[in-house]
Amino acid sequence: MTEVIIAGIGQTEVGEHWGxxxxxxxxxxxxxxxxxxxxxxxxxxxxxxxxxxxxxxxAHLGVLLADHCGMRGxxxxxxxxxxxxxxxxxxxxxxxxxSGLVDVALVVGVEKFxxxxxxxxxxxxxxxxxxxxEAVQGLTATGQAAxxxxxxxxxYNVPTDGFAGFPLxxxxxxxGNPNAMFRKAIKREAYLKAEMVSDPxxxxxxxPNADGAAxxxxxxxxxxxxxxxxxxxxxxxxxxxxxxxxxxDRHAPLxxxxxxxxxxxxxHKAGIxxxxxxxxxxxxxxxxxxxxxxxxxxFAKPGQGWxxxxxxxxxxxxxxxxxxxxxxxxxxxxxxxTGVYQAVEAAMQLRGVAGLCQVAxxxxxxxxxxxxxxxxxxxxxxxxxxx
Amino acid sequence: MTEVIIAGIGQTEVGEHWGxxxxxxxxxxxxxxxxxxxxxxxxxxxxxxxxxxxxxxxAHLGVLLADHCGMRGxxxxxxxxxxxxxxxxxxxxxxxxxSGLVDVALVVGVEKFxxxxxxxxxxxxxxxxxxxxEAVQGLTATGQAAxxxxxxxxxYNVPTDGFAGFPLxxxxxxxGNPNAMFRKAIKREAYLKAEMVSDPxxxxxxxPNADGAAxxxxxxxxxxxxxxxxxxxxxxxxxxxxxxxxxxDRHAPLxxxxxxxxxxxxxHKAGIxxxxxxxxxxxxxxxxxxxxxxxxxxFAKPGQGWxxxxxxxxxxxxxxxxxxxxxxxxxxxxxxxTGVYQAVEAAMQLRGVAGLCQVAxxxxxxxxxxxxxxxxxxxxxxxxxxx
Lengths: 387, 387
What we know:
The structure is a homodimer. By secondary structure, chain A is of the alpha/beta class. Chain A is about 35% helix and about 20% strand. Chain A is built from 13 helices and 11 strands. Chain A has a 5-stranded mixed beta sheet with strand order 1-7-4-2-3, with helices on both faces. Strand 3 (about 75-80) of chain A pairs antiparallel with strand 3 (about 75-80) of chain B.
């Protein structure tokens, strides 16, 4: 059986990197991943990026990064699926290696929000929703999330502080991650006093846009260099589902259909049930998305995702740790790099090198990257292989 | 042996579609391709697009088009490599089907230049070159081509009308293609009198930006529907190479290294030599690129590509017909759709349904999509299978 191994991982600190160019951010993560792999030489580069054509006036990132990172000549391409771009790039790399057409693939996610400020960021982000029917009406990504959160609170009679569990856990975990944007635990009082961003979403219900780059090297198990000494982590399954792009087209907007389908498909491919999952890196760009993702995946019943978090069932010591290294909320949301950060973090967990964030004895990690309100959902299941 | 078959093809007329939205252009091509395939149901959609985030304020095209075209739920993603985006999307679809991870893949290329006018187009196109080191200096895509053409004329002592062969053939062929933007043959006198765009590039040396969409359906040979009655066309090889993004970084700028490497790799994979190639769809966004592509591929010696064209060696009745349905110059340059148009046109040639543009008895077609000055080069070899 051909297994696709995560042979190298690298990442930059997530934050505001005003003084570092996009290409240099990517280089830092790539260099770390190549070194980590024992010096594997990538034949193909898959770049996960969401907004560089608008934020950084730069498309054609594949060749730009291959060249800039000392890999001139290799196959290179950009993969885009809004906030799920990193996950989508990981899937393209997985397919390339799994198929045997490529022996060693490099997947890098990179985003540079600080190349724009203010309205420049807003109009860039607006391109990821339905421009002709939603963005043009002024509906922002945060506005979409606010509509969903209000609807959820109404349907399920959720109190004002019902979502506090998500950012509380995220920040508690982020405190232990040296690459997280926010490394401070917060208290429930802080959540209660937080300023509104888009009612009912307060400052702690929305993940911060951030700069960052993360990279993984993929190869097949027979191709690892002799000096490779990390515990083996493979991609046990990969799946993508889509929903409507426009939120107004959904019959059941709280259903997060694509989030559900992608998890089901991935579990089926990996041949495991949900009970085998040891931790879940969900896409908590908004607290409401974390709640809906828990429900869509099947970890919580509809309307109970917030209770699941509020009762502590997602903490590092629980049966289903989530956002183990801070998630989007505390590690930060580096756009199209996010899905690759999830993969790097999950690989760290499975290798047992997650430090203060370590989930004890983890074997299966579920990671899910979302584009828009689960318009695109990309899922991978990572598995620690037997020694 | 698993063969990846081009089971369905579709395209829209190339031109200025002021009144048709990007999603509707894509729909027209997709509908035609699905019908042509005998009703195959795609499981995955790969969108080749170059500039929609800037031209059309629309990213996240995968889910947008999957939803809009009646395929809600399927895997969907955008693939970008500047002008080579369509070729790059075709390669992702090929890998997905070849690997067995996807049974039926839909590849659509789409671009809508008329969503912007004037400077909006220029600044969008500028994102495909090195923003920090070339675009910021005012070097446009046409400026890059002009530098290369002037250098070529200097090195090889080429007369002012030396490149006329390329647009003359392109327009002669375009006259027979009902989907071409320009369907009129031109005379040498017209070339000689043409206005300068960026000296020495005149109006006929530069392909027109245009709107358009083209689609192909890929599957494996065992999965074709019973009612499928077209001659079988397979993808015999797929290869990608890259060079520097910035032209100023090249030691030998007339070498088009990636264009050469990608053709060599593809021929090697297909197990054939150049002499087997029956026609060549090169990326003639500029006449000089056509000349350099002929030389890089090995059909002409360095400095003789223009003579090759000028002597009529690329006409429909020659041994190496090029731009058989008009190429970028006469069919038009619909950005990220271009590489998929090439695939559709090559499939038509190999099926024997290219009408007035038909190349007699063609078995192997070489198609090459370029991003920038061969910064990215994506090559596919299509082969007509034995009945």
